[in-house]
Amino acid sequence: MQILLVSATEMEIKPFLLSDLKKLDTIDVLITGIGIPATMYHLTKSLIEKKYDLVIQAGVGGSFSKKIKLAEVVLVSRDIFADIGAKEKGKFIPLSVMGLQDANEYPYEDGWLINKNEALKTKKFQAVKGITISTITDDKKHIKEMVKHFAADVESMEGAALHYICLQQTVPFIQLRAISNKVGDRDKRKWKMKKAIENLNTELSKLLKELTS
After folding, report:
1. Is a pLDDT exceeding 90 seen at residue 85?
2. How would residue 60 be classed by pLDDT, with cut points 50, 70 and 90?
3. Which residues form the domain of 174?
4. Kindly report the CA angle at 190 between 56 and 83, in degrees rounded to 5?
5. What is the number of domains present in the chain?
6. pTM (2 decimals)?
7. Nearest alpha-carbon partner for 161 in 43, 60, 26
8. CA-CA distance, 85 to 66, in Å (whole number)?
9. The predicted structure's pLDDT at residue 123
10. In whole angstroms, how far apart are CA 114 and each of 16, 64, 107, 192?
11. Within 10 Å of residue 172's Cβ, how many Cβ atoms?
12. Mean pLDDT lowest for which of 71-80, 120-129, 155-164?
């Protein structure tokens, strides 16, 4: 099985990069850089240049949900570009609602980019809904609006790009996120970044050993 491991930064998967798993010929690593444009360009380029059986995106993210603990590792089952649209009278309006996009035109289903990989049925990780944004904010009103509109559990800056590209290219994929902070809390003294990265790489290593054994 040929696996492409994708991460926005080296920091998020540094323990893996220092492990013996990094030496396996069946695993390639792609560091895309932060954000949607960089992820879409570099991931598309990699998938065109080589055929992969599975793409795993591993990174940290923020959580909206009280049911998700800090440093917990979750599987994102569906994602969406949450800030592509318009804002009128203080309310966010998606392109599909504006009539500029078909909410069910492939790869979308009711506006969402849904991962139907069998791996999501595992009970090892909690399966969650994610949103992908280009601007991180501590604006409580905006955050409340996002929660109300999308009922999402977690937030990242690259997840939906992974879903979109892999669905378009018909390549199986998994999005793993370790929760470093609650969305809107910019006091990094309350974050658990170090523990989140530690847990992410522990679970990532277990998963890769299972897939490559």
Report:
1. no
2. very high
3. 3-212
4. 50
5. 1
6. 0.93
7. 43
8. 28
9. 67
10. 27, 19, 8, 28
11. 17
12. 120-129
Which two tokens mark 36?
């949607």
- Does the pLDDT of residue 58 top 70, yes or no? yes
Token pair for residue 62? 């923020």
Question: Is residue 187 pLDDT above 80, yes or no?
Answer: no
Q: Which residue has the tokens 């995106």?
A: 57
Q: What is each CA distance from 152 to 145, 149, 172, in whole angstroms?
A: 11, 8, 22
3-state secondary structure of 27: strand
Residue type, 1: M
Distance CA 211, CA 172 (A): 13
DSSP code for 23:
G
Q: Which residues pair with 129 in a beta bridge?
A: 78
In this predicted structure, what is the pLDDT of residue 145? 83
Chain centroid, CA 159 distance in Å = 3
Q: Which two tokens stand for residue 168?
A: 């378009």
For residue 134, what is the domain's CATH number? 3.40.50.1580
Q: Which residue has the tokens 């999005």?
A: 175
Q: For residue 14, what are its two tokens?
A: 């540094």
Amino acid at 192: K
DSSP string of 35-88, one letter each residue: SHHHHHHHHHHHHHHS--SEEEEEEEEEE--TTS-TT-EEEEEEE-BTT-EEEE
- Token pair of 72, please? 């917990």
- The Cα angle at residue 94 between residues 154 and 149, in degrees rounded to 5: 45
Which token pair is 30? Answer: 């792609």
